[in-house]
Design brief:
Protein name: Arsenate reductase
Distance between the termini: 10 Å
Number of strands: 4
Keywords: Oxidoreductase
CATH topology: Glutaredoxin
Organism: Actinophytocola xinjiangensis
Order of helices and strands: EHEHHHEEH
InterPro entries: Arsenate_reductase (IPR006659), Arsenate_reductase-like (IPR006660), Thioredoxin-like_sf (IPR036249)
Radius of gyration: 14 Å
Strand order of the largest sheet: 2-1-3-4
Structural class: alpha+beta
CATH architecture: 3-Layer(aba) Sandwich
GO molecular function: arsenate reductase (glutaredoxin) activity
Length: 117
């Protein structure tokens, strides 16, 4: 299992605590220090069944600077969004947890974290 975290995020800390309490083995990826590549983001999005705009934190200052709220959410613009997430990992919703079987969730709620256990 792997969890993408920002240690400053309370939701990330809560998810890590839940994983610890469940006794599962996992790898922590501090995605701000070790940003995912565009290819890794595509793989995660495919496992989540989501589009890049679905996991974009649109209230982040960099999102406002880029003007992502006004970007089209179309297949033709998908790569633009992915490239923005790869270049600006603060835009990525967190935490993202991937189980060994490939099941992936955005663990913002306790229920989402439980679903991966």
């Amino acid at each position: 299992m792997e969890i993408w975290v920002n240690p400053a995020c309370s939701k990330c800390r809560s998810a890590v605590s839940m994983l610890d309490d469940a006794g599962v083995e996992y790898t922590v990826r501090r995605y701000l220090d070790d940003p995912p590549t565009a290819e890794e983001l595509v793989a995660v999005l495919d496992r989540l069944g989501l589009e890049p705009w679905d996991i974009t934190r649109r209230e982040e200052p960099v999102a406002k600077e880029l003007g992502v709220r006004d970007w089209p959410r179309t297949p033709a613009e998908r790569q633009r969004w992915i490239d923005a997430l790869a270049a600006n990992p603060k835009l990525i919703q967190r935490p993202i947890i991937t189980a060994d079987d490939g099941t992936t969730v955005i663990g913002r709620s306790q229920d989402a974290v439980r679903s991966i256990l």
